[in-house]
Amino acid sequence: MARSTEHPAEPAPGKRPPAPLALTINGKPYFHDGDPAMPLLWFLRDVLRLTGTKYGCGIGACGACTVLIDGKAARACVTPMQAAATRKVTTIEGLETHELHPVQQAWIEEDVAQCGYCQAGQIVAAVDLLQRKPRPNDEDIAALGNLCRCGTYPRIRRAILRAAELMHGEKK
Amino acid sequence: MSERVDAGRRRFLTVALAGGALLVGLRLAGAQTTDVPPELLGDDLTDLGPFVRIERDNRIVIGARGCEIGQGVMTALPMLIAEELDVDWNQVRVIQLPYGYVDTDKGPSNRYGEQGAGGSTSIPEGWKDLRQAGATARWLLVQAAAREWNLPAEQLRTEAGQVIAPDGRRLTYGALARSAAAIAPPDQPVALKTPDRFRLIGKPTRVADARDIVTGRSRFGIDAYAANALVAVIARCPHLDGTLVSYDDAETRKVAGVKDVIPIPGPKPDAPLDGVLAAGVAVLADSTWAALKGRELLKVQWKEGPWAKESTAALAAAANELLDKGEGGVVVRADGDLAKARKQARQVVEARYEMPFLAHATMEPPGALVEINQDSARLVASLQDPEAASMLVARLTGIARRNVDVRMTRAGGGFGRRLKNDYVAEAVLVAKAAGKPVKLMWTREDDLAHDFYRPFGVHALTATLDRKKRITGWAHRCAATPRVYRDAGATERPVYSGCLEPDDFPAGLVANLDKTFFGLTSGMPRGAWRAPLHTFHAFAVQSFIDEVAVASKQDAVELRLGLLGEPRRIPYRGHGGPFFDTGRLANVLRLCAERIGWGKPRTDGHGLGIACHFTFGGYAAHAFEVSVEGSELRIHRAVCVVDVGRVVNPLGVEAQMMGGTLDGVSAALHLAVTVKDGQVQQRNFPDYPLLRMAQAPRAVEVQIVESTEEPSGAGEMGVPSAAPALANAIYAATTVRVRKLPLMPELMRML
C-alpha cells in the first residue's frame, strides 16, 4: 500500500513482492502491490513524490495530471495502476535529459507560466502534440483541452510554435 | 552581530552577518533583533532568510516576501530590491520567504513587511519599502569599499554587483559583504535612484523560477509532505449551514490504509465564518487514494440548515421584487435631484442585469499540511493571507504565534479564494484530534461546493437624457447578497461594500445621481473574487452605457468621453483612491478604440464592443471583435489597454492583462454557481466550464500606457471591463443584448 513518508520510494529493481504490478516510470522500474484500481496520479505523487504531475479534477477533465504513457498523452488521474502496468510512463520530471526538452525551453522563453500549476500538464500535452504533428496549425493547438485558470493560452500557443521551431533546428 | 537604525518610516533595518553572507531585512519599529534562521547558516539555499544575501562568489540571493498566486510577485518584488542594490538580474537567485512573524514591544509584527496577496497592493507596497531595502544594502557595500580604498563614498559608483572607484578599480559585492555587514546602517533613509537610472525596473523580465515550473520541481502547497502525516479528506455537509446527525464508518474503516475517522462540527448559523466552512467527517489514511475510497464508503446523515429553501431562482425573484418596490434600500450616494431630472428628461433608458454567484476554482484546490507539536506548529500551504493563517493556527491550538511556522509555497491560483483560511482551520482541527500531522486534500467537488462565492445580484440602471442627448441623471440600484457576510470581527463595513462603490463611474460626472443598495438574504458564503466588486458592477455599468448610446443614437466611445470630460482628478473614497483621474481613463479608452479600429464601417458582419473601468488605482479598457455563427461565438480580436502607472515588469503586466482578460471572458461566457434547495449544484469542471484554448481568442493585444505615475499593481485591473466589452461586441454583431451572465446560455436562449 502507498505510504505517506517523508522520502519518495526508491526504485526497486529485483525486489519483487508477490504478484505486483510492474511499470517503468521515467526509465526506472517500479512495482505496485496495493490497490490495482488506484489511479497512477496518486502512485506518482504519494509514493514516488513525483509531484510535478498535478491533481486538478480527478475526472480527466482538466489535464493538470497529463503524463505520457508509452509516448502518448494520458490523464493520470483516471488511469488505474492496472492499466499502467507494463507500460512506460514519462512525467514532467522525466522530460529533461541532459538538457531541457525544447518544449520546456520554449515555455521559459515565451514566459508562459503565471501560477504555474497547470503548466506541467500543458507541457506534456504539447510534447505529445508535437510528436503527432511536428508542424501544428492553430486548430491543432486549439484542440489541446488542458485548462488554465490564469489564461496563459496565448503564450502557450506561441511556446508550442517556438518549440516546433526549436525541434526543427530553426531557432537557437 | 546586529545593528539597528531608524530608517524613517517607523522601520528598522537589521543587518546580520552569517557565514560570510550579508543579510538585510526590514522590520517594524521596536522589533527585537531576531536570530538568523539556522538553515541560512549552511549552504542550503533552498531555505529562507531576509531579503538580501550576498555570497562570497558574488551570487546574490533575494528573498521574495509575497504570496505567489500567479500575479508575478516572485519576480517583480525582488526586481525592486535588485534595482536599488544595483546588481545584474542574471546574478540573482530568488527564494521564497516564509511568513515573518516577530514579537515586538508594541505587539505582533512582521520582519518582512506586508506579505499578503490582495487588492493588487504588492507592487505599491514594495515600491515604498523594498527599494529602500535594496538601496540600504548598496549603501553599506559602498561604505565598505570607501573604507577599503580610503576614498570618500561619494566618489564611488556601483554597477552589476561591483563597487567602482574613480580610477577604475573594482571590488565585487561578494568581496565586500563581510566588512559591509560590520558597518552601522545609515541613520536616514538613503536616496533612491531617479527613474532615469533604472536598469531593471521597466525591463521585460521572465518569471524568476520558470525553470522549476517547467521541470515540475516547483513545490505548491499540495506538494508538501511530512513524515508520519496522514492524508485527510473530508465529507462536508452539502446543505448550507446544515449539521451532522450521525455517520457510520464501518465500511470506511475496512479500507486498507484508512487510519481514523473524525467528525468536525460546522460553524453555528449566524456566527462569523472564521474557522471551518461546513460540518464534516474527516477520513484519515496513509494515502490520498485510501482516504478518498474511505470517504466514498461513509454513510452520513446530514440535517438541512436554515437555508433549505434557498435557490438562485428565488434570489432572482426576490431581487427583482425589491427593485420593483424600491423601498428600504441603503443610500450609497445621492447627488442632485434625480426625480426632477427624470421629470424633465427627453428620454429615459432603463435596464436590469443579473450577475451569478461565482466560484474561484483555483487550479490547485485548497489544502494544507499541518504539524502540531507540544509548543509549536508548522503550516505549509498555498496562501494569500499568511498573517490571518498564523493567527488562526495560534487561536485553534493555543500555541504562541512566534512558534507557529507558516510556510508559503507557490500557489496554484488565488483569485481571492485563499484570502480565507477555512481549509487551514480544518487541517488544524483534524491534526489536533488525530494527534498526528495532517495533509488535508480537497477534491474539485469539495472546492466548487464549499467556497466563498462572488455575490449574486441584480443591477437596475436608469439614465435620463436631455434634448441634447446629454445624460442628466443616473440611477444605479443594486439588489444583491451582500459581500459583507459573517466576517470575523467585522469592522463597521457598510452593507453595500463589495457590491456597489459610491464613487465609481459615472459618479461625480452626472449631476443627478442615485446609488441605492438592497440586501438579499442568503446562506451562501461570500468572498472576494479577483477585482472583487468591480467585476460585479462594471458589467452592468459598462453594458448600460452602451445601451444608452444605442438608445440615444450616439457613439459609445464619444458618450463615455463626453462624460469623463476634461482630464481632472475627482475624489474617490474606495480602494485605489483618493482620486480617480478622468483623463487616464479617457486615454486608455481612446487608445483602445483606435487599436480595435472603432468607428470604421464593417462589411464582414463582425461586431465591435468596448468598455473601460477604474480598478484599485489602475485604468483599463477592453475591446473585442466577434461574430456569432449558429451557436458559435468567435472572438476574432481582443484588445486590452492599461495604465497602471510606472511598470516594474512589462512582461508581467502583459501577462496579467492577457490573463485578466481571458479570466473575464471565461467567467462571462459560461460560469455560474447556482443554488437549489440550499445546496450548490455545480460539481466539477463539466458543469463549471472554465475557458479552454479553443474558445479563447488567439491573442490578447495588450497595450501598456507609458507612465511616470506611482505604480498601482496589475493583478486585477485586467478583468472588470472584459465582460461588458464582450457583451457589447455581441450586441453589435447580433443586436441581441445579453443582460444576464453567463453570456452563452443566455445568448443561445435569445437568438
Describe the structure.
The complex is a heterodimer of chains A (172) and B (751). Chain A is an alpha+beta fold and 172 residues long. Chain A has 2 domains: 21-95, Roll (Ubiquitin-like (UB roll)), CATH 3.10.20.30; 102-167, DNA polymerase, domain 1 (Orthogonal Bundle). Chain A is built from 7 helices and 5 strands. Chain A has helices at residues 40-47, 81-84, 92-95, 102-109, 119-132, 138-142, 153-167; strands at residues 21-25, 28-32, 66-69, 72-75, 88-90. In chain A, strand 3 and strand 4 (72-75) form a beta hairpin. In chain A, helix 4 (102-109) packs across helix 7 (153-167). The longest helix of chain A has 15 residues, at 153-167. The termini of chain A are far apart. The mean pLDDT of chain A is 93. With 751 residues, chain B is α+β, with helices and mostly antiparallel strands. Chain B has 3 domains: 2-214, Aldehyde Oxidoreductase, domain 4 (2-Layer Sandwich), CATH 3.30.365; 221-306 and 366-441, Aldehyde oxidase/xanthine dehydrogenase, molybdopterin binding domain (Aldehyde Oxidoreductase, domain 4, 2-Layer Sandwich); 312-358 and 452-750, Aldehyde Oxidoreductase, domain 4 (2-Layer Sandwich). In chain B, the strands form 9 sheets. A 7-stranded mixed sheet of chain B has the order 14-15-12-22-19-20-21. Chain B has a 6-stranded mixed sheet with strand order 1-2-3-4-5-6. A 5-stranded mixed sheet of chain B has the order 17-25-24-23-18. In chain B, helix 1 runs parallel beside helix 2, helix 9 (386-397) runs parallel beside helix 10 (422-434) and helix 13 packs antiparallel against helix 14. The relative contact order of chain B is 0.11. Mean pLDDT of chain B is 92; it is low at 1-21 and 25-49. At the A-B interface, helix 1, helix 3, helix 4, helix 5 and helix 6 of A face helix 4, helix 6 and helix 15 of B.
